[in-house]
Amino acid sequence: MKKIFILACVFLLSFSTIFASSASAASLFKDVPETSPYYKDLKFLNDRSLLVYDNPENMFFSGDAKRNSVVVIVSKILGIPNFPAKTPYSDILEFDLLSGQVVVLSELGVVNGYSDGTFKPYNPLTRGHFALFVDRAFGKYLPSGNQEFSDVPKSSEAHNAVKKLVAAGITTGYSDGTFKPNEKLSFVHLHVFMARLVRYLESQNIKVPLNIGSLEDTNTKPQKPIDDSKIKLGMTKAEVYELVKSQIYKNITVDSEVLVTTSGRNGLAGETIYLFNHNKLIGISTHFDLDSLEIEPNTLEELHEYYVNELAKEFGQSYKTSTYSLLTSWDKYNSEVILLTSKGKNGVTVSLSISSIGK
Length: 359
Prior knowledge:
The structure is a single chain. The chain is an alpha+beta fold. The protein has helices spanning 2-18, 39-47, 67-78, 98-107, 127-138, 159-167, 187-203, 237-244, 300-315; strands spanning 258-261, 270-277, 280-289, 319-322, 326-332, 335-344, 347-355. Helix 2 crosses helix 7, helix 3 (67-78) crosses helix 4 (98-107) and helix 3 (67-78) runs parallel beside helix 7 (187-203). The longest helix is centred in the N-terminal third of the chain and has 17 residues, at 2-18. The protein is globular and about 65 Å long.
């Protein structure tokens, strides 16, 4: 039990570090006055819960943006919740909530790792890589563009991506006709550029955050939610796929390490991510729309308790603790099972995960 308690504390610490735009950010930042040229963009993102993270002292980070920064903000705009997951990268901890977003973005082809098996989340983000990530995630909505730069030749991987971003007014080049793709992108400019991206998407009547399960038609009404009562941790990918395939994101196959559906669990609107390791279901994360909680269960506590009662039948007596989130954990067959329910401005996320399967 002590082992589980320590694990839960690590989990919550990771969550509180990454989870963005809580109430403390409502006053914005002490070091970004309203006269700052960045203030309006930061407030714009803050009002939509799209800032990368909060600083407990309300100070905005003034350094370089990192690869993990773009993972978080792109995920927020796509509507991918933050949840813990086992990744193929040796330097992404399983209980870092960023891990789930890294897994999903990797499966969607937005980001990738390095040949040595690492992701290098703290490596500086360059202007060229930023353009590539945004193009992979949102390029279908951006204009082609025709602006050329002397240091971004047609042979460059970022050539078309840079032209799209410039055409959409997200970023610009320099007066000498260069784009400087290898130059580090500052943390504040990452937010400024993403604010411009969101404004462009909204100008095209694209609602943000997007539902990653229905990118082909953002106006499509949610389908009837999947009955998840038959989906249990430990099931094979093929078994889960058969139950959810009618609402699965079209680019994800049974061979993927994640299955993403366009509906929430428990009869509520949202999106659900099923995570696998060695062909076994080890995690389920659902992001529910706040409006969908108008039906029972209609409070955070009721939603969490619903799953506690259901999962207790499978995992037995639970150990429960509570902070600003609700967390329940089990120890079953030498595995740690964690249920976390948390609420943000844009919705509620329920994550169920297993770690250390077997001895």
